[in-house]
Predict the structure.
Amino acid sequence: MMQAVYQAAAKINLALDILGRRGDGYHLMRMVMQSVSLFDLVTLEVIPGASGIHLECSAPEIPCDSRNLAWKAAERLLEAAGIQAAVHISIEKNIPSQAGMAGGSADAAAVLAGLNEMLGDPLPKERLYETGLSVGADVPFCMAGGTKLVEGIGERISPLPQLPESFFIIAKPVSGVATGPCFQRYDRLIQAEHPDIPAMLTALQGGNRPDIFRHMKNVLEQAADCTAVAELQKSLAAFHPLGCAMTGSGSAVAAAFGSKAEAENCLRGLAHLREKGTRLFFVTPVPYGVLRI
C-alpha cells in the first residue's frame, strides 16, 4: 500500500466575467484566479491491483460517494490511465462549501495530481487537465494554482505575474449560493456591469498593487440573490481595503489589503460576526494549487 498527504488550496476570484454562452449551454468565462493559504488536507491510500473507492470526510454534510468530485476524480484517473487499484480518500475539510472557493474542485485536483504522481505519472499534464475538466470546470485551475487567467469553460489557463505582497480577509456567511441558480439568474439580467479585466492584467504586469485590486469585480454579484453578500461587502468596506469582491458564484467575499497589520485590524473588527455564524479567514496568496506534504 502507498500513502501520501496533499494540501488542496482554496481559490478566490480577483475578477470574474461572463462573455457569453456556448451552444451546449456552458458559459464562456474570463477570470483572474488566485490560490490562497486555506487548505483541505487530502490523504490518499492506494493498493495497486485491487479495486474499489472509499471516501471519508470530516464534514458530515459532504457526500462520501460518487456525488463527491474527489470520488469522480479517482474513477476517471484510473479509467484514463487504464490502471486497476483500490483508492481510499480521506478529506480534512477546511474550505467552506457553497462559498465560491472551489473546495470540492480543490479536493478533486489533489486526488488527480496525487494519484497520478503515486502511480508513476501515467497521464501527461495535458491529459491530466482534460480529465480534470471532465470532473469540474475549476479543477484544472486548482491543479495549476498560483495566479492565472482562466478562460473558456475553464480549460484555457495562462500564467500571470505573481501578486505583489498582499493579504486577504475572506468572510463566508451562513447562507450559501448554489452555482446553477446563480448562473440562471445572471442569464435573466437585462444589463450587467462587467469588470475591466484588461486593466487588471496591465496592473499585474506592472506590479501595481493599488490598481490590481481597484479592479476587483465579479459580474455574478448582481445575480447572487444573497443579502448577506452585500452586508459583508459593506462591513469589509469600513476597513478601507484596496479592493473587495464576491468570489466565484458566492457567497464568500474577499477583501485585499496591502499590509498584514491592516488585514489583522479588519479581522479583529469583524470578529463579532462570528456570533452570527460568519466564518472569517486571514489568507495570503500561494503559488500552487496542490502540494504534497
Observations:
- The CA atoms of residues 172 and 252 lie 4 Å apart.
- The chain has nine helices and twelve strands.
- The mean pLDDT is 96.
